[in-house]
Amino acid sequence: MKKFFKILFFIVLFFILILWLVKIFLLTHKYQVKYYNEDKIEKDIVITFNGIYGYEKQLRFIDEKLAEDGYSVVNIQYPTVDDKIAEMTDKYIVPTIDEQVKKLNEINLERKAKNLPELKINFIVHSMGSCLIRYYLKEHKLDSLGKVVLISPPSHGSQLSDNPIADLLWYFIGPAVADMKTDKDSFVNQLGDPDYPCYVLIGDKSNNFLYSMLIKGEDDGMVPLATARLEGSPLKTIENTTHTSILEKQETVDEILKFLKE
């Protein structure tokens, strides 16, 4: 019996070590901000940021296409495994928005003197990033707000967060996962519907059949299509794309540009 428990102990220890290594080396990404067209702002600013476990490279295709179209693009990469959504927003998103608001206010003063229209700040965010920007816009009044595009958003949560295993592994997968449960009292379901121009884009193809087994109805591999919807915000499905491949589709960029220019 002692031998059995000894073996069991080392198996559990090994499992914990693997989870810790995954968290440190695969799920954790450092905070960094990347700028496009920073020195010559003649068009709106677009701030982009990732979802849970995401990183800058995932949004690079969209960022570069927007920059090519003349937008000043600011990408925020932030760590997602240590804090809840509100804390992440205050730590990593608010400072960059404040910086861009200050910069834009100065630019708009100059534009006003030249009888040019004011520029705006827009947001293009992926997955859990949608929860951060919705929280930010609920808590802050942004006079220079333009439009918001939510890509693959868990607007009303995801059944993946409801799974009891997620509660057991909270230290390794991050406390923000619990914020995205589907029950009516969860953090994400207290954010309300947008009162600003908002467009939802989501894929229709799963790349993870195990996750899809836990999700009710159609999904993109992470988020149920049904819970992505927000009252009053148009939604478009980008066909044959998954939760992440949607970020590298030209149709996604075309929809974003069309919405920003409307």
Automatic annotation (TrEMBL):
<dbReference type="InterPro" id="IPR029058">
    <property type="entry name" value="AB_hydrolase_fold"/>
</dbReference>
<keyword id="KW-0812">Transmembrane</keyword>
<keyword id="KW-0472">Membrane</keyword>
<dbReference type="Pfam" id="PF00561">
    <property type="entry name" value="Abhydrolase_1"/>
</dbReference>
<dbReference type="InterPro" id="IPR000073">
    <property type="entry name" value="AB_hydrolase_1"/>
</dbReference>
<feature type="domain" description="AB hydrolase-1">
    <location>
        <begin position="46"/>
        <end position="172"/>
    </location>
</feature>
<feature type="transmembrane region" description="Helical">
    <location>
        <begin position="7"/>
        <end position="27"/>
    </location>
</feature>
<protein>
    <submittedName>
        <fullName>Triacylglycerol lipase</fullName>
    </submittedName>
</protein>
<keyword id="KW-1133">Transmembrane helix</keyword>
